[in-house]
Structures are given as structure tokens and as C-alpha cells.
């Protein structure tokens, strides 16, 4: 119990010291303001200094409001930082999932080996078909086909060279190498399969349909696997690195398109020649020796039809590739949005750090603009003077005037620097006061907790005292002085708690007055805006912001009123006077017990059995 009282006394003393320090600091600031006013009144520019002092007061109030806005903004930024931490955790999870995907890479490699085997089989079939055509077709048509094949092979070689260059470029970046190697192998295998399937499609519809179905199934599986790979992997860094390389790929694709156009043009020329030959052959009678030529023509027609089918398939594949690119773009956009949010957080932090100097910079810019305007006016006047050939005396007078103005400007700049230093000092004092107020509130909360705990302990001790006094207080000689001391201490505690409650009420009153002043200022700003008329979007946004700030301040004022009501309820006289009443009851019971013990002793002296009566009285007590 004594420990609790000592703690409460120490806390009250510390709190009083902090209030004294605050009052001293406020007095020092007021003295500085008075000194500034006296110094400014001694100058020639008294009116300007008074205006500046009024502006300083307004800036103080604006600083207080801005500090509240900044605190709210800081809390919002902390929430955003927590959300970003969650995103970083998700990215770590994605990195953990990358280890799982390495097993999928092995499946990709197996699929590539199967495709290579398929390519070998198709090459064998192509060789068999070439032998068949050599045996049953005309030599000229075969030569034309060989020329087309050579051109396509050259195109394939060019594309392979570009792919090789791209692979050399990718070797420098090992992060992108695995994913792009898989894509390159898939694309090269697909192109090779397309070329081989064109040869196979010349000899049978059943085989063609079967190969087309297999091709579509393989492509769909590849697309689904790529989509799963994009979903499971954190390809953010890879996408960013590939964006620069996709430009080069587009250039290569444009070159490939140009080569394809040339190839189509050459094929059309060959088709025209073939049509001319077919027309000549229709005019003439069919000889049994010309039968292979008719077969070659039929083969050309089948080639055209199958090329059209392959174009349709390529179109479908390109649509799926476009879908994949759209998914990738969505991923990139989401990652860019996250990066933008992070950049915005950084910029907001920078703005918060630089926001203190914005008012000073605005004043400097305004002063410099005025100075520039004055100098421009003076230069214009000098130019006019030279143009009109003004006398040298007038020019000297103008120069003297300019020098006087420069001296005045120097003095003004010195005054501005001094006032800025004072403003910085006042801002530091405001920050210190805010910190001290927050610490005082925290200490008040701790004191309230300690007070409640002390009251609980006192109640428990009182119960124990009442129970123990029935057995031991009758014979205890030192109990009454201790109880009287305890009563004195509790009176002192009551007095200290009343002082603390008064000080807390004063603090609450100061806060409420500050909030009311801020609300009245917001109302004044809103009234000015409504009188001037809201014409632009910026003004409407400013009005909405003022309304939101006013609402927030009113909510704070409500909270402060509720807290003051709770304080008044807690500081009711019943709670404060509970402990002394209990002590008086204890003292009264102790006095009654003393009287009873005295009577018992008298009766015991007359009785023949003093020991037993004493024992019985003790037991009864």
C-alpha cells in the first residue's frame, strides 16, 4: 500500500515538473515575441513588422492544423507500408514456389525431346515422299519445289542466325536464359513441324487431319502450360528485362514478314506460270507420257489448299499467342502499379520532409519576383532615359535611388532571415510541445491505471484489516497510531488526486478550445469560398477537403467531451470519499473493541477462572 502511494506521489511530482517546464517554455516564447515586437517597432517599417507578426500567428495555427493532417497522413502511409510488406511476403512465397517449378522444367525438357524425335520421324517421311515424287512426278515441277524448299531453308537459316544472336545476348543475362531457351526451342520446333507437315499434307487427307489434330492438341497444351507457368512464377523481373528485348524481336519479325511477302510474290509468279502451262496442256490432247505432269498439277492444287489450312491454323495460334501476351501485359501492369505505389510512398515521405520549407520557399520566390519586377522596371526606365537623352544628373539620381533600394532590400533580406530563424525556433517549440503533450497524455493514462490498481489494492487491504482487527486489534497497542497515519496519508492522496483531476480538466479544456478554434477557422474558409463562388475543380476539391477536416475536428471534439465526462464520472465524490469512511468505521470498531476488552478484563478480575474466560473471550472475538 505504501509502495502504491509512493508511486502515485512520484508520478504526480513528475507530471507537475513537466507542466512547470511547459509554462516556462511558453513564457520564454512570449518574451521572445515581445522582444521581436519592440525591435520591430524601433524600425522605420513598423506596420510591416506588425503584419508579419500577425502572419506568424496565423502560420502557427496553420502549423498546428498541418501537424494534425501530417499525423493522419503518416498513419495512412504506415498502413500502406504494411500492405506493401504483405506484398513482399507474397513475393517471397512466389520465390518459394519457383523451386517447385524446377520439376516442371524437367517435364518441359522431356517434351522437347519428344518433339525432336517427332521431327526426325517427319524428316524420314519427307525423304520417302521426295523419293516418291522423284519416281512419279515431272522433273521441272520437282525442280520448282526444290527451289521453294531452298528459299524456305535459307529463310530458316536466317531466322536461326537471328535466334543465335539473341541467344548470345541472353547468355549475358542468366535470369532470363532458362525461360527464353524453352520458348525458343518451342518456336523452332513448331516452325520445323509446320514445314514438315506441309510436305506430309500433299499425300493424304486422313494423315493431314490426324496431324492437324495432334498439332492443335500440342499447341493447346503448350499454351496452357505457359499460362500456368506465368501464373505460378514471379516473372516480374523477367518481363521487365524482356520488354527491352521484345523491340528487337519485333524488328526481326518485321524483317521476317518482308521476306514472307517476297516469298508469296515468288510463289504467285510460279502459280501464274503453272496456270499458263495448264492452259496450254488443256488445249492439246492428253498423251500417256504427260500423265506425271497432271499429277504434279494436282499436287500443286493440294499444296495450295493445305497452305490455306495451315494459314488458318497459324492464325489460331497467333490468337492464342496474343492472349498470352495480354495476360503478360496484365501482370506487368499490376507490377507497375505496385512500383508506382512504392514510388508514391517515397515521394510522399520526401514531401513530408520538405513540406516544412515550402512556406519559406514561397516567400523567397515572391520576394525575388518582386525584386526582378523592380529591376525590370528600372531597366526599362533607364533605357527610356538613354533613348530620350536624359541629363547625367538625372541618371546619377536614378543610380542613387537604385542603391538606396538595394540597401533597403538587403535590410529586408536580413529581417526575413531573422524572422525565418524565429519561425524555425517556434516550429521546434511547437514540435516539442506536441511531444510533451503526447507524453503527458500517456503518463495520465498510466496514472489512471495506477490509481485504479491502488484503489483495488486498498479495498482488498481494508477487507483484510476488518477481518484481522476482530482477532488482533483488541490487544494491539500500536494499531491506532498506524491507522491515524494511514488516514492522514489517504487524505493526502485524496488531495493529490483532486489536483490531478483539475490539471487533467485544464488540459482537456485547452484541447477543446484549440479544436473549436480550428473548426471556426475551417468555417471561415468555407464561408469565404462560398462567398467568392466555387468556379474551378481545384476550389471544389479544396472545399471538400475543408469539410472533411471540419468533420474530423468535430469528431475529435466529441471524443474530448466524452473523455471529460468520463473523467468527471470517475472523479465523483463517492469514489474519492470511500476509503476515509472505511477507515473511520475501522477506527470506531477498534474503539468499541477496546471498550469491550476493558469490560471483559474487569469481569475477569472478579471471576474465579480468569484463564478460561480470557480464552473464551478471545475465541468469541
From TrEMBL:
Record's keyword annotation contains Coiled coil: yes
Basic and acidic residues compositional bias, start-end: 267-280
Listed Polar residues bias regions: 604-621
Coiled-coil parts of chain: 12-87, 112-169, 296-513
Region (Disordered): 267-291, 560-621
Keyword Coiled coil: yes
Keywords recorded for this protein, A-Z: Coiled coil
Protein name: ELKS/Rab6-interacting/CAST family member 1
Species assigned in the record: Eufriesea mexicana
Taxon lineage: Eukaryota, Metazoa, Ecdysozoa, Arthropoda, Hexapoda
